[in-house]
Amino acid sequence: MGSVKLEPLSEAHLGAVAAMLSDPDVLRFTRVPDPTPPDFAETWLATYDAGRRDGTRAGFAAFDGDGRFVGLALAFGIDRDEGEAELGYIVAPAERGRGLAAAMLRALTDWAFAEAGVERLRLVVDVENPASLRVADRAGYVREGVMRSVYFKNGRRIDAWLLSRLRSDPAPPP
Fold first, then answer.
1. Domain spans in the chain, listed from the N-terminal domain onward
2. Over 80: is that where the pLDDT of 119 sits?
3. For 138, phi and psi rounded to 5 degrees?
4. What is the three-class DSSP state of 90?
C-alpha cells in the first residue's frame, strides 16, 4: 500500500484539483457538479477555507512519498456538538491502483479523530463504485446499509452505502 502526506488545501493546489474535475469517474461518483462550472475549483477552495475557519470542513491535498500530488482528502459536515463528520477522498486518475485511496482515508480518519474531536465518521459510497467500497473496507469502516435514492445527479437517483468508523473501533490491519 502507498503512503501519503496530507497538507491543508490551498491555492497552490488549484491547478491539480481543476485537472481532476473533468475525470469521468470523479464526475460520476462524487458530488462534484456535472457539468462542472469553470470556477468550481476556486469556489470549492473558498468553501473549505471558510469551513476550516468555522470548524465545519477541512480539505487536504495528498502527496505520495515522491512528493507528487495524488488526490484530495476531505472532511465535511463536521458537527463538533454531535461528534460526527463525513469524509471523502478523490484519487487523481493517473495515481489509481497504487493503494493510495486507502492510505488517504486512513490518514484522514486519523486526523479526524485526533484533530476534529469526533467520535463517529461516516462515508457515503455509490453502490456502483465497488473500488471505493473496498477502500473503505481496508480502512476499517463498517457497512451499515444501503441508503436508497439518497442523491439526485444528472437526472438519476443514486443509491449509496453508508459506512462508519467509531473512535472505539479497532484499527484496521496495516
1. 5-166
2. yes
3. -65, -25
4. strand
